[in-house]
Amino acid sequence: MTRTHRTTRGTRPTMRKPLPTPEMKPTLSVPEAGTYLGLSKSSSYDAAKRGEIPTIPFGRLLRVPTATLRQMLGIDPVPVTEPGTLGHDPRGE
Predict the structure, then answer these.
(1) In sequence order, what are the beta bridge partners of 57?
(2) 44, 37 in Cβ contact below 8 A?
(3) How far apart are the first and last CA of the chain?
């Protein structure tokens, strides 16, 4: 994906790396995940603190599951759970 970065000398395109698959990189750092959402480093950590970016804590370290981020962005479909499996709501909601 090509983005445009505005500078004092005009506009220059910047390339963003494609979001890796969970098999390639199971987790991302919070700032790395934020770049795919168009967020700065501090905005990424703020969003993670609010629960808007899902994280897995490892002590003081926070990691973002790649699979979940890809689903949030609509890159990969959200898996459908079968009745009687984890994540099934018996009320149908």
Answers:
(1) 62
(2) yes
(3) 36
